[in-house]
Amino acid sequence: MSDSLHNNGGPGRTRINVNEDLEVRTWADRFGVTPNDVRDAIKALGDRVDDVQEYLHSHHSSPGI
Fold it and tell me: 1, 33, 35, 45: which could join 51 in a potential S-S bond, CB 3.0 to 4.6 Å?
């Protein structure tokens, strides 16, 4: 499947397709990280959005003051 602007893995999706660059970029923007960060999270935990989000939050949150 090609990168479609109409099927970009937005809200309501439960998995991230790492083979679709547009989808990875869309989720990266949504999470405030780079596409490579999203790919690293998927490699570590799998493609479930909730798992990726939790991983990114725990690995990219700034320490409390």
Answer: 45
Overall domain count for the chain: 1
Identify whether the C-beta of residue 55 lies closer than 8 Å to the C-beta of residue 41. Answer: yes
The boundaries of the domain holding residue 55 are 1-65
The pair of three-digit structure tokens given for residue 61, joined into one six-digit string:
């949150």
pTM for the whole thing? 0.75
Asked if 37 and 60 count as a contact pair (C-beta separation under 8 A), the reply is yes
How do the pLDDT tens digits run along the chain, 65 residues long? Answer: 444 444 555 555 899 999 999 999 999 999 999 999 999 999 999 999 999 999 999 987 655 44
